[in-house]
Structures are given as structure tokens and as C-alpha cells.
Design a protein that fits this description.
This protein is of the alpha+beta class. It has helices at 12-28, 52-56, 86-89, 240-245, and strands at residues 43-45, 66-75, 94-101, 106-111, 117-123, 125-130, 172-177, 183-185, 191-194, 203-209, 236-237. The strands form two sheets. The protein has a six-stranded antiparallel β-sheet, with helices on one face. Strands 7-6-9-4-11 form a five-stranded antiparallel β-sheet. The protein is globular. The relative contact order is 0.23.
């Protein structure tokens, strides 16, 4: 890994260059990017220490937990439900998002108590590591589904420094390429993914999932079909800094 200083924020010039380049790439690939998708939460940095990715440069191939998410649809399945059925509606609905990661960059280890998702590679290749057995978190209201075991990690697979322990239970590996069938990651399965560090292009992956509970500051009320969903967070990150860091962007200027 390249030796870098521990940058603890990002300049607005760096940030907006990253976000606008990603949105232009998404548009060129045919994704329906809308103006409201481009904001201070579009680029996600998973913890204060991960801002060092910008000091090294996003094309360095170094492993850091940073990514872009462009979300075109997030709708809960609540219309027309019979009285009393609302408590089950949080498991339905549909989300459509595009995720972009530069070489070596990771979406960090996490699982979803409610959400099942699928991946379709649009550009580049995608390294996925995951736990083939569902997490027992005490909230097993719905079955977790089956994710086939992959192979062991390939030699030399590098994870972010200081966060190695958060990756230890993700023992299975698969590499996905454009044209492969959609890969399904069921709820309660730990997973993480990256763009290979030697890639000549960013990884662009389209995720289709059930409704995505994201109680962030930027979220509007239209993304909360039921009032009691406002406190639900369906992203359980292994490393605590990953969860805290993704909710805000730290600007240096």
C-alpha cells in the first residue's frame, strides 16, 4: 500500500469532482440520474480514517472504504394493504440503485436484517466476500434465504488497514463480471465488495433490492411510507466507524 497521511476530511473540490465524474459515468451507462441524486450524501466515506483515500488518490488501488451511491427508486409496499398488515410491509417494496467504486475501494462488511438484494455488474468486475451462513441477531422474523458458498479468498486480497477484524467472518468469495446472472445476497448474510485494485475502470454495479431503510438526515418523508419506519436502519455494519461515518461528509474547507 502507498504510504499516506491520515487525511480526516475532503475538500469540496475533491468531493464534487468525485461525485460529478461518477454521475457522468452513470449517465453515460444509461442510468436515470436525476438532479436530486447529486448531493453531499452521494459520496460515502465509511469513517473518519477513510478520508486518507483522497490523499492517496482514488485511482491508487489502495484499499479504503469509500463509494458512490445513486438511488433512483426506493418505494415501500404499503398501498392497498389490509388493515393490520402494515407491520409486515417493511419487508416488501423495491429499491433500485447504482453503486460506483474506484480500484481497490470497498463497500465494508455489513448485513441487512430485512433487505434482500441482487447485484448486476454494469462495468468492470466485482469482488464479493460474504458469510454463507446467516447472522443470528435475534430478529429472525423472516427466513434468511440461501446464499451458495463460494471459494476461499484469493491470495493477496487486501482489506483496509486497521479494519481487518471486521472482515474475518466473510469467508466465501466470488468474482462477478458483466453479463453474469444477477447474484442474490439474502437478508442477514454478512457481505462486502470491492473493485479489483488492478482494474482500469471503476466498478459500476446495479443493485435491485427490497425496500431500503435509510434513516439519514437527507432522507425525505416520501421515503418513509409509514411513520413508525422513520427509526428503522436496515444496515448493520461490523465496524462501528463505518456506520457512523456514512451519515455525514467531513469537509476541510
Amino acid at each position: 500500500m502507498t504510504s499516506v497521511t491520515q487525511q480526516r476530511g475532503v475538500t469540496r473540490k475533491e468531493y464534487w469532482s468525485w461525485v460529478r465524474d461518477a454521475s457522468a459515468l452513470a449517465t453515460a451507462l444509461g442510468y436515470p440520474v436525476q438532479a436530486e441524486m447529486i448531493n453531499e450524501g452521494t459520496g460515502i466515506v465509511f469513517g473518519e480514517d477513510q478520508y486518507a483515500a483522497f490523499e492517496a488518490g482514488l485511482w491508487s488501488g489502495d484499499p479504503f472504504e469509500v463509494m458512490i451511491i445513486l438511488e433512483s427508486l426506493n418505494e415501500g409496499a404499503v398501498s392497498g394493504l389490509p388493515s393490520g398488515a402494515e407491520s409486515f410491509a417493511e419487508y416488501g417494496g423495491l429499491c433500485d440503485k447504482l453503486m460506483i467504486l474506484h480500484p481497490g475501494k470497498w463497500c465494508p462488511p455489513h448485513y441487512h436484517p430485512r433487505k434482500t438484494e441482487s447485484y448486476e455488474v454494469v462495468l468492470g468486475e466485482m469482488d464479493v466476500i460474504y458469510g454463507p451462513q446467516p447472522v443470528d441477531d435475534g430478529s429472525q422474523r423472516l427466513a434468511a434465504g440461501h446464499v451458495p458458498a463460494g471459494t476461499a479468498w484469493p491470495a493477496g486480497l487486501e482489506v483496509p488497514a486497521g479494519r481487518e477484524e471486521s472482515y474475518e467472518k466473510l469467508t466465501s468469495y466470488v468474482r462477478l463480471k458483466k453479463g453474469d446472472p444477477k447474484f442474490v445476497m439474502h437478508r442477514r448474510h454478512l457481505h462486502a465488495f470491492r473493485c479489483p485494485p488492478d482494474s482500469s475502470v471503476p466498478l459500476v454495479v446495479r443493485e435491485i433490492s427490497t425496500y431500503s431503510h435509510e434513516p439519514t438526515e437527507a432522507q425525505s418523508d416520501i421515503h418513509r411510507p409509514l411513520a413508525h419506519w422513520s427509526g428503522i436502519n436496515d444496515n448493520a455494519f461490523v465496524h462501528p466507524a463505518a456506520d457512523d461515518g456514512r451519515l455525514a461528509t467531513r469537509f476541510l474547507d
